[in-house]
Amino acid sequence: MIERTPEGLYCHAAEAWIDPIRPVRRALITHAHADHARAGCGEYFAVNASEAILRERLGSGIRLNTVSYREQRRIGTVLVSFHSAGHVLGSAQIRLEHERCVWVVSGDYKRCTDPSCEPFESVPCDVLITEATFGLPIYRWRSGEQVAHEIRTWWMGERLRPSLLFCYAFGKAQRVLAELKAIGVDDEVLLHGAVETVTRHYRDAGIPMTASRPLSDLPRNASLEGRLILAPPSAHRSAWMRRFKTPQTAFASGWMAVRGARRRRGYERGFVLSDHADWPGLVQTVKESGARRVFVTHGQSDVLARYLREVEGLDAEPIEALPAGRMRSADEGN
Question: Which of 158, 211, 235, 251 could form a disulfide with 188 if both were Cys (CB 3.0 to 4.6 A apart)?
Fold first, then answer.
């Protein structure tokens, strides 16, 4: 049902690409991160919770068909539905059913509790395409609640310096705000402009988060001692940081689980907080799906596929094992 093309994964029976890497006539989008949702497609299908962010990133005038989780749509001869991936607001796994065969494309997903988005849903299928961003046994996450307590202790422990916490502007920053809210933090958090833009959409969606406002709302000479500021990694060591005098810095990411990653990236502290599944979560997802065949993509695809074959006894291969379709040009059908 699905094959590889230069534009990405293509479902011929639906005449649609899943998270295409080039403009195509019809795109099924798992979530609004830039490496999954690209501009220039003829029409898009995505979960309604991701609409505001998609329109802001791809253009307000895009032809966007929104669906609710589990709502079924017939596209071509395929029954298509979107199921929560637990990754970020509006993220989804895409289920495709055709001639009694079910494929699921996971997109990015995580299994742990996250107060900023819908929880992951296990979706039974015959064939599963799963990510493997953190597909090594060393990656095992603690709860977001535990990490939120660590962040609060780090922040509150330094009242004479601003605390700069770098995290991805879409998804991670809002999760930090939601996790802090969940453990009872009421202190206002300041936001870099890129973080504020996305956070507004989360608040409009009713996600409970601790109080925040843009750093730009404060006078240039305002004291920032003891304040927590969330900023994207791109702001680290940029001209934007000149405003801060001797700040303490930290980075929130799953990559902080690797010894030496924090030092190489130039942060004083690292918090292990990821919006992707850890090793146990990846294995659990594959087993719960009941899939007869598994294709693995992104990250450590070879490692996870080999483990699934040799330990779990499953028919699993890196996604390159998918059949390559005829070489369609990017503008075919547009």
Answer: 211
H runs (alpha helix) in 79-143: none
- Residue that is written with structure tokens 């534009």 in the block: 7
Please give the model's pTM, rounded to 2 decimal places.
Answer: 0.93
pLDDT, one tens digit per residue, over 147-163 is: 999 999 999 999 999 99
Q: Which residues pair with 213 in a beta bridge?
A: 190
- Quickly count helices (H) and strands (E) in the chain: 7, 19
d(C-alpha 162, C-alpha 248), whole Å: 6
**Residues 275 and 172: beta-carbon distance below 8 Å:** yes
Q: What does the alpha-carbon distance between residue 65 and residue 85 come to, in Å, rounded to a whole number?
A: 19
* Residues of the chain falling short of pLDDT 50: 326-334
CA distance 47 to 93: 10
Q: Concatenated DSSP letters for 192-232?
A: -HHHHHHHHHHHHTT-----EEEGGGS-TT---TT-EEEE-
Read off φ and ψ for residue 68, nearest 5 degrees. Answer: -90, 160
Q: Is 112 left (phi over 0), alpha (psi -120 to 50) or beta?
A: beta
Instruction: Tally the residues of the chain.
Output: 334
CA 93, distance to chain mean position in Å, is: 12
| Burial per residue of 50-63, b for 16 or more beta-carbon CB atoms within 10 angstroms, e otherwise | bbbbbbebbeeebe
CA nearest to 34, candidates 232, 277, 225, 231 = 232
